[in-house]
Structures are given as C-alpha cells and as structure tokens.
Design brief:
The chain is of the alpha+beta class. Helices cover 40% and strands 17% of the residues. It has 10 helices and 5 strands; from the N terminus they run H-H-H-H-E-E-E-E-E-H-H-H-H-H-H. Strand 1 and strand 2 form a beta hairpin.
Length: 225
C-alpha cells in the first residue's frame, strides 16, 4: 500500500537555477526591486543578495554577525545550513509512503554544516540599505523574526517591481545573482567562489565562472556583425 500526502492534489516544482539562469540581472534591476519597499523588506532583499546566503541561513542572522570595518562590512560566522534531506516515512503497519512526484519521500530539516566569514564591499549599491536596516536592530536580535514561508511570500511579491523580462523571483535566486555578479564584475574564480560561499564541490561555482565568460563574449561582440 502506498499512501500520499498533500502533494497528491498539489504540484511540487523544484527550481534549478542552472536551468533558467542567464547571468547577473544588474544593479539597476536590484535597486528597482528594493526602491518601493519598506525598510524591513529592503533589508531582506539586501541581506539575501549581499550575503549570498540560503534563506534559512539569512533567517539565522543577528546584528552581532555584522561588523563595519575599513571599506567593508565583515559578516562573521554566518551558518552554512543544509535544508533538504531525504528520509523514509512509514505508516503504523510499516508501509512506506511518499510525496507525490518524488522517487523517495522528503522531509525538510535544517542541519548546520559549517559557518563562514566574508566581506561585503561598502561600495555595493545595496550595502548602505543593509546597514541602515541592521542599525534598527539591537545586539543579539534576529534580523528577521519570522519563518521561511513568510520570507518566500515576500520575495514572490517582488516580481511586479522587477518587470516580467527578469523572470521569477524566489529566495535562492539571489544566491545565484550574487555568485554571478562576483564572477563577472570581481573576477572571482572557482576556488574563490567556493571559499566565499562555503561550497565544498566545484560544480556550482564552475557554472557561474563559465557563465561570466559567456557574458564577456557577448559584450565584446556588441555592435559587430
């Protein structure tokens, strides 16, 4: 016997940045995203992009994690969390049951893998917004005292500010945008991206480095026949 959960009547879409992402959207797009927002939501977008953190990692941040230094904001001990892991569910008779559309059942959980410390340039257009927001918090206070669902819905509401040409916005996209921006504008190589984001394998940072090279080729050929 196979028993189904919520996904029996609902479709689950797993997004892959690599399948739909074509490079950094540009600072103007990001500034247009945050311009009409209140300070908390400006802070949310700025945190997701500037830290390049996963949503669960950003939700764990406190004011204490940020230190202003000469020309940079140092993000200290930001947790590296893995949210998704597969587990087997069984009913009272010992029968396994699955989420619709999945080969194996899935349970969402959060597991701390490591932490990372890294700088954010004060010259980044969103850095001043981030600092203004952090300045409203007390020492030891969470930046965002709510859960993933609320964060997700806030980001989904941003699409009307960006315009249709920039596609869907969802929390993890900001991680891809940041990686692409650092590769294309700051010339981060694979190893530097791995260190900055806490990646243990080279496949994902390699994607952004190759994408950066592709963008440079497109730019250099502008106007040529």
């Amino acid at each position: 016997m196979v028993r189904y959960s919520y996904w029996n009547d609902h479709t689950y879409h797993r997004r892959s940045i690599e399948k739909s992402f074509d490079g950094f959207c540009g600072w103007n797009t990001l500034e247009n995203l945050v311009e009409p927002l209140d300070l908390e939501n400006k802070g949310l977008v700025s945190t997701l992009f500037e830290t390049g953190g996963r949503a669960t990692e950003c939700l764990a941040l406190k004011k204490d994690n940020f230190e202003i230094q000469d020309r940079v904001v140092l993000v200290k001990r930001m947790p590296v969390l893995k949210q998704r892991q597969r587990v087997v569910f069984k009913d009272e008779d010992g029968n396994e049951w699955y989420y619709m559309g999945e080969e194996k059942p899935i349970k969402y959980s959060v597991k701390k893998l490591d932490d990372r410390t890294f700088p954010i340039s004060l010259n980044d257009p969103l850095a001043s917004v981030l600092l203004e927001f952090i300045g409203t918090k007390k020492e030891g206070e969470l930046l965002f005292p709510f859960g993933y669902s609320k964060l997700y819905m806030r980001i989904r509401d941003l699409e009307k500010n960006a315009g249709e040409k920039h596609g869907e916005w969802y929390p993890h996209r900001f991680r891809g945008e940041r990686a692409s921006q650092l590769a294309s504008e700051k010339n981060f190589d694979v190893l530097t991206l791995m260190e900055y984001f806490g990646w243990k394998r080279h496949e994902i940072p390699s994607f952004y480095v190759k994408l950066s090279a592709k963008q440079l080729i497109q730019k250099i050929l502008v106007g040529e026949v």
